[in-house]
Amino acid sequence: MAWLLVITAFVVIWVASLCKILHISVSSSRSAFLNSDGTQKRNVLLVVAHPDDESMFFSPTINFLTSRGHNLHILCMSIGNADEMGTIRREELYKASTILKVPLNQVKILDHPDLQDGFGKVWNHKLLAKIIEQEISSHGIDSIITFDSYGVSGHCNHRDVHYGVQSFLLNKVPQSFEAWELVSTNILRKYSGPFDIWLSMLSKENTSGMMHCLLNECPQKSFLAMAQHSSQWVWFRKLFVTFSSYTYVNTLKRIN
Q1: What is the DSSP string of the chain?
Q2: Is the pLDDT of residue 7 over 60?
Q3: Domain boundaries, the chain
Q4: What EC designation does it have (predicted)?
Q5: Residue 207 above 90 pLDDT?
Q6: What is the pLDDT of residues 122-164, one digit of tens each?
Q7: What is the pLDDT of residue 11?
């Protein structure tokens, strides 16, 4: 009987969380993130380490930005060639970008000899900063989004991308330039699915605009985008996308 109550409570909270997301989508609720009130469109650069990072971790942010008309560019620092499938994975990212409504001419995927995918592959932060600076200059970028210092999963490449962005920010950038990092959560929250939207919304309260909680207004698009990464779309990643809080909500924190 106790187990039945637990399962019932689980289902009720799950459904309530999804309904909350649906309500946000239907009501077209606006966030103050990047002044998304319809008056100013930003040129935003999303910096990731591997193909599939954008779909597994950042899809709520991508859906938010594209739905509000911001001009989003994706910079992927490697082709994800750790298993010798880099050529395949590069094409998969282009397919996922189409699903996520990011123009293919605004998706750049690098295959630099010093930026190869893999645990133990240390990426030079100054090199990353130089590449980021070139991309920002080429496209008039005024906002950048990337991983935080833990990088969601602790992957060294994710963390290096964060420090590469920080290294870039040490240079003089305009006061209006904004930099944001995706907040990593503990393992319980990470696998709590849509439940985490409630904790995420609470965590950003009283942060004076330094944190924003972006709910995924179209979770099914995240599944479809990740499915384009067919070389990675194995059973445990299907479970990850289903139960990961990053499918349903992103909490972004301003990088000072």
Answers
A1: -HHHHHHHHHHHHHHHHHHHHHHHHHHT----GGGTTTT---EEEEEESSTTHHHHTSHHHHHHHHHTT-EEEEEES----TTS-HHHHHHHHHHHHHHTT--GGGEEE---TTS--STT-PPPHHHHHHHHHHHHHHHT--EEEEE-SSTTT--HHHHHHHHHHHHHHTS---TT-EEEEEPP--HHHHTSGGGHHHHHHHHTTTSTTSEEEEE-S-HHHHHHHHHT-TTT--HHHHHHHHH-GGGTEEEEEE--
A2: no
A3: 42-254
A4: 3.5.1.89
A5: no
A6: 999 999 999 999 999 999 999 999 999 999 999 999 999 999 9
A7: 53
